[in-house]
Each structure stands twice: as C-alpha cells, then as structure tokens.
Amino acid sequence: MPVSFLDPGQFSARLELEAPVTVADGQGGAEVSYQGVAAFWALIEPAGHVVREAAGAETATLTHRVWMRFRTGVAAGMRLRKGARFFAVRAVIDPDETRRYLVCHCEEEGL
Predict the structure, then answer these.
(1) How far apart are CA 21 and CA 36, in angstroms?
(2) Interior/surface letters 67-101, b for 16+ CB within 10 angstroms, e for the rest
(3) pLDDT digits (tens, 9 = 90+) for 72-100
(4) Helix, strand, coil: what percent of the chain each, to 5?
C-alpha cells in the first residue's frame, strides 16, 4: 500500500471530536447529546453530494473526507464540529496502515 504524505500546513481546520452520550428522558426513552472529547487540526476535503426527493421536497447530503493525525478512540457514530457545522463520522480508516493519519468519511449534518 502506498505511503500517504500530507503537508502539515494543510491541516488548517480546527475541529472538536464529540462522542454521543445517552441520557434517560424519564419516560422510558433516551435523548442523545454529544460531549467534547478532543480538539485538533485537520484537513477537510469535500467528497461528493447526493440530492434526493423525499415527501415532495429535495434533500441534500454532502460527504467529506476529514484527515487528521492518528489517534485512538475515533469511531463511527461520533461527530466532528467546526463552529456551527457538524460532520457525522460514518467510517474511520488508517489509509496506509502506518498509524500516521486517520481519514474519517463523514456526512455533513443540519443542511
């Protein structure tokens, strides 16, 4: 597998990693909120978009690849926050299996 190299200056987006926290709502259900875990610099690359029609309205899904320095504890189901933008982590890979970088495949939420 080829070794990936990125110029460290490309990590120009300050992101916060958030983990889901489930809290009982008192009526037998649960509410999911997110709690900050770590903050770091990353590279956000737009990957694609899909426009769908649902209930007579168009909805859009934007996908992104988010590159970061390798760290443990990042998993699908978490989210990344950049200011008021949220990116739901769908998959996490080590692109060249050298434990130097992680790539999160994300969908932007709240569009």
Answers:
(1) 10
(2) bbeeeeebeeebbbbeeeebbbbeebeebeeeeeb
(3) 999 999 999 999 999 999 999 999 899 99
(4) 5, 65, 30
